[in-house]
Design goal:
two-stranded antiparallel sheet, elongated
């Protein structure tokens, strides 16, 4: 019943009003905003942890939602392990994030890690942009 309520009305959080101790319900839907850059996180796991904590979900229940072990989730959130690409759909549903936006974040962290490990930085981006410009028109054929 609660699941049906949340799927219909969205995630709600009780938030104290500043002028009183009464509570009111404030709709809460975290999302990735394309217009503004997100604050930096050291890795994708920290991004996941931030959004999970905003929803006030424990690691245990969150791990069950995305069908992984709690210990594995802990290693992902600490940056010791990365989440598999096939888990992104479940992750987007569990975090109430748009799948395409989450996938974009996932790949941006993957690219950043590769660039950091390679030591080439911006020069890799310039080279990759040239290749994208070459490949993109071919995909539309």
């Amino acid at each position: 019943m609660i699941t049906e309520f949340l799927s219909f009305f969205g995630k709600c959080v009780l938030v104290p009003q500043p002028e009183s101790v009464d509570y009111y319900i404030q709709a809460y839907t975290p999302s990735v905003n394309d217009d503004k850059p997100l604050p930096g996180y050291p890795h994708f796991g920290a991004f996941i942890k931030k959004h999970r904590e905003e929803l006030h979900i424990t690691q245990e229940s969150f791990a069950k939602k995305i069908r992984i072990d709690r210990g594995q989730l802990s290693r992902i959130e600490c940056g010791k392990k990365s989440i598999k690409l096939h888990k992104l759909k479940a992750l987007s549903k569990a975090l109430y994030l748009n799948y395409q936006d989450l996938k974009k974040e996932y790949y941006s962290y993957q690219l950043a890690e590769i660039m950091d490990e390679s030591g080439y930085g911006e020069s890799v981006l310039v080279s990759a942009r040239e290749k994208l410009d070459y490949l993109s028109p071919r995909k539309n054929l």
